[in-house]
Write a structure and sequence with these properties.
Length: 444
């Protein structure tokens, strides 16, 4: 039943963008949320809603608050221009030192400047949704929050939302209730653009998740993962045996697999939107969106030698399967690079992590449960090849969440269960919870 439920699991780009690091559920008493109790989100104990839809109605622009919320004295608002390398770097520096860490403070996400430029500037992005807080005197950036526009399907409803991400307050300014002010200000900026719903993910549990996923990890560079204590050699195992068991071929296996190119975008977008009909919480991509998500982060020029490796500043890796006889695009997969700082480790300062992003296969069409076995078989080959590509590109670990059609393939591909969870949230939208895995329970 767990598998069945997890198969129904939703997916959104954010999930795969790997927010909220490893770290268990952090449930505090759901009754004690002074800020979240005032927000249009389902409140603890509300039960399953009778109807799906907004919690509070949209407002005309002139009824939206026109002045920014007040900040504590000595701080001021700033709109961050991510096109400006200096401001992009300021956000990068803030996040590098202050963003999400795992529960043991051993690893901290280190989004690259290229990643931030990619994630924060999808088609139709609003510069006003990249919000910073600076110290008035020296202009140092000490907090950030962002939104990007997205078309989201929640079951049968298609809504325009803002995807909120990169909420961060400098470590020295924590617990001063700055986060609620940032959230209110980004909400106001979204309202000014006529957007009244949002989606976001977090490692923490706040009112009220619509689903939760678990992180899984596939080891690639075992000696380094052991040395950084990302994983350990089990008692009944040796390092050499562990390396042997996880060894990957140097060549991919699926015939017709090659890097995605501009000429594939129409086919890949159609395949993507069709395949996503299998799930209940999904983004809708136009051609421009898909081009941005799958190609714009792939860097310029040749990739390494022989079609494997990586380019300078490369964020995303996208591959298609072109049927050799017909030239038809039958499948694609993608993953992205999100390194973590290994805190207090000078030998290995960075853990290179790849995260499984979107994929689609025509084997899954039309969407139906009858396809599940065929989909599993095909995905074992496709994601298996993603592991090969990531390994050749010198990633240390390949991460995936328990969403889309991932659950049935994780064990066969030697992913191990992680201790991190990712909770999914909708703002100002009521819907019944998505069937998901039992976060405490086991997934085969
Ligand atoms: S998730 C990633 C969040 N970032 C990090 O974890 C980085 C490291 N941590 C920090 O920088 C700080 O600890 C943060 C909190 C900034 C997280 N989502 O200022 P405070 C509530 C939502 O005293 P601080 C991501 O980016 C908390 O429950 N709320 O606390 C998605 C409490 O409220 P209440 C959170 O530790 C973000 C209040 O804040 C989160 O100094 C989606 C305490 O404030 C969290 N991750 O700062 C944001 N963490 O008393 C929501 C704490 O009620 C978007 N809190 O429990 C909503 C939609 C908005 C747009 C709507 C458009 C229509």
């Amino acid at each position: 039943e767990n598998i069945r439920q997890a198969l129904q699991q939703m997916k959104i780009m954010d999930v795969v963008k790997g927010k909220a690091g490893p770290g268990g559920l952090n449930a505090k008493n759901m009754g004690e949320h002074k800020f979240w109790a005032t927000q249009p989100v389902p409140q603890p104990g509300e039960g399953v809603p009778l109807e799906e839809g907004y919690i509070e109605p949209s407002k005309p622009r002139e009824e939206v608050r026109q002045e920014p919320y007040s900040l504590p004295k000595d701080f001021e608002w700033a709109t961050l221009d991510i096109n400006d390398p200096v401001q992009n770097k300021e956000v990068y520096d803030l996040l590098s030192l202050n963003y999400v860490e795992d529960d043991h403070a051993a690893f901290r996400f280190q989004y690259s400047a290229e990643f931030l430029a990619w994630a924060l500037k999808p088609p139709g992005y609003h510069p006003e949704w990249h919000i910073g807080v600076r110290v008035s005197t020296n202009k140092k950036l000490v907090a950030f929050i962002s939104g990007v526009p997205m078309t989201l399907r929640v079951r049968q409803h298609v809504i325009q939302v803002s995807e909120i991400n990169y909420l961060c307050v400098h470590k020295k300014l924590r617990s001063k209730r700055l986060a609620p002010v940032l959230i209110k200000e980004v909400t106001r900026q979204c309202h000014l653009k006529g957007v009244f719903q949002a989606i976001y993910t977090a490692g923490v549990v706040i009112p009220t998740p619509v689903s939760v996923c678990r992180y899984y990890h596939r080891s690639l560079n075992i000696p380094k993962l052991v040395e950084t204590k990302f994983c350990h050699v089990p008692r009944n195992m040796t390092l050499a045996r562990m390396i042997r068991l996880n060894k990957l071929p140097s060549k991919t296996s699926v015939p017709g697999l090659r890097e995605m190119q501009e000429k594939d975008i129409v086919a890949a977008t159609t395949l993507f939107n069709q395949y996503m009909k299998r799930f209940d919480l999904v983004p809708f991509f136009t051609l421009e969106d898909a081009r941005h998500q799958f190609l714009s982060g792939s860097g310029e020029g040749e990739i390494g030698t022989g079609g494997v490796g990586r380019r300078e500043g490369q964020v995303t890796w996208s591959y298609v399967v072109e049927e050799p006889e017909t030239g038809k695009i039958t499948d694609f997969f993608s993953f992205y690079s999100l390194p973590s700082t290994v805190i207090n480790n000078t030998t290995h300062p960075i853990l290179e992590a790849a995260y499984l992003f979107y994929y689609a296969t025509e084997v899954g069409l039309p969407p139906s449960e009858d396809q599940d076995e065929k989909v599993k078989k095909r995905l074992l080959a496709l994601v298996g090849d993603a592991l090969v590509v990531a390994n050749e590109a010198k990633f240390d670990v390949f991460n995936a969440l328990t969403l889309m059609d991932n659950v049935p393939i994780l064990q066969d591909l030697r992913f191990g269960v992680g201790d991190g969870f990712l909770n999914f949230y909708l703002y100002n939208w009521r819907t019944s919870p998505f069937a998901g895995m039992n976060p405490e329970g086991s997934v085969p």
